[in-house]
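In response to the reviewer comment on reproducibility (Comment 2.3), we provide here a single inverse folding case reported in full, input and output, so that an independent group could reproduce the run without further information from us. The structure tokens appear first.
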């Protein structure tokens, strides 16, 4: 009872626009008790809590679903991940002979491991496993770390620095997509955040 009074007092001080937004767009962020208190406060102010009337006010109702399934940029992500993983596996298999330096063989082993892990991530993404987004993020981070190590080795040993800016941009774009995408959250669940 005391918690209900606290919620009612809190929402009484909110602007009407904030209450409408909380009841529609951000409804999944609130507990059922909080949404009930918001609805009572909107009713007290003479506003309907009906999703159709709130949509007329310019806000989408909370019942509108985000895009789900394997489509859009999620499909592009899976294709990019699969292609990069196959390239890493081929590179890893190609360099495993005695004619290459120890560092090249270690790099090839790392690339092969990252390639195999990327294939696993693709399978998890296709199976819609809730752990898939965090595993895919791990793949992008480990791939970027390997690129940085190789670039630094070449800089300190050979004196040339590989351009790795594309790696940073690519990793940043996909990590942002994995953490912010509504499709990712709808397909893999809210708990899929990493």
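Designed residues, in position order:
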């Amino acid at each position: 009872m005391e918690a209900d009074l606290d919620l009612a007092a809190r929402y009484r001080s909110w602007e009407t626009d904030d209450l409408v937004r909380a009841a529609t767009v951000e409804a999944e962020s609130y507990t059922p008790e909080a949404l009930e208190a918001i609805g009572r406060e909107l009713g007290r102010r003479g506003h309907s809590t009906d999703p159709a009337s709130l949509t007329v006010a310019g806000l989408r109702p909370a019942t509108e679903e985000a895009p789900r399934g394997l489509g859009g940029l999620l499909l592009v992500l899976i294709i990019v991940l699969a292609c990069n993983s196959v390239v890493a596996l081929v590179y890893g298999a190609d360099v495993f002979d005695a004619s290459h330096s120890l560092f090249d063989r270690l790099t090839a082993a790392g690339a092969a491991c990252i390639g195999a892990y990327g294939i696993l991530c693709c399978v998890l993404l296709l199976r819609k496993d809730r752990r898939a987004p965090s595993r895919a993020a791990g793949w992008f981070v480990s791939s970027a770390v390997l690129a940085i190590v190789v670039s630094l080795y070449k800089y300190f040993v050979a004196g040339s620095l590989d351009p790795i800016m594309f790696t940073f941009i690519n990793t940043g774009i996909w990590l942002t997509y994995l953490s912010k995408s509504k499709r990712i959250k709808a397909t893999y669940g809210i708990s899929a955040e990493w």
